[in-house]
């Protein structure tokens, strides 16, 4: 497993008093609900881990394309478990700074449903949503967000905005539960892939 402490995050990372580096369960961590907000942080299930592994494998397919990317997302019906949409980050392909994996997937899912809200749906993402994406998850009314690698993990490989998804979710009256990290080591393989590293160097 990659060191999370030794190489350290470059910037102070706010966790808002919610520990997500506690006891691992299926590669995931559950923590108590954050105080002062309506966000809940729940515990990953075996189904969460299975879906995350599948999403990571889907995202890994980009390594053999002209646009390798470690960021993929998938939206499932929270009740039936049926997959509604999955997609990867398209920032480079679309010349769109907002084209993160979560945003692209939410846009496509809403277009498919011809709806502006995704209540009753859960979003999985290979990396913890950035503040922009977590805000979009909240605006979309998603029930739940489940992530793989953490923002701290991603920050070791490129620029990030160091506000945890839980912190974003806590500062609103919109309800959404957050779970992660799930299958963190496997998600990190997206970042450490040799083809991905080569592309990331070009990003800097
Ligand atoms: Zn994002």
From TrEMBL:
CDD domains: nucleoside_deaminase (cd01285). Keywords: Signal. One of its GO terms (molecular function) is catalytic activity. Residues 50-160 form the CMP/dCMP-type deaminase domain. It holds the Pfam family dCMP_cyt_deam_1. Residues 1-33 form the signal peptide. This is tRNA(Arg) A34 adenosine deaminase TadA. It comes from Granulicella aggregans.
């Amino acid at each position: 497993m990659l060191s999370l402490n030794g190489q350290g995050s470059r910037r102070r990372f706010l966790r808002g008093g919610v520990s997500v580096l506690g006891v691992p369960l299926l590669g995931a961590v559950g923590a108590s609900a954050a105080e002062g907000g309506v966000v809940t942080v729940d515990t990953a299930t075996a189904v969460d881990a299975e879906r995350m592994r599948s999403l990571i494998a889907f995202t890994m397919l980009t390594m053999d394309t002209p646009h390798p990317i470690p960021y993929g997302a998938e939206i499932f019906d929270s009740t039936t478990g049926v997959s509604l949409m999955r997609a990867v980050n398209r920032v480079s392909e679309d010349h769109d700074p907002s084209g993160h994996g979560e945003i692209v997937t939410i846009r496509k899912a809403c277009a498919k449903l011809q709806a502006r809200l995704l209540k009753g749906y859960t979003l999985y993402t290979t990396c913890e949503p950035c503040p922009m994406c977590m805000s979009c998850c909240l605006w979309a009314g998603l029930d739940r967000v489940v992530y793989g690698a953490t923002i701290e993990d991603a920050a070791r490989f490129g620029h990030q905005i160091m506000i945890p998804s839980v912190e974003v979710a806590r500062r609103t009256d919109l309800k959404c539960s957050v779970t992660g990290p799930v299958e963190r080591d496997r998600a990190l393989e997206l970042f450490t892939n040799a083809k991905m590293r080569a592309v990331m160097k070009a990003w800097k």
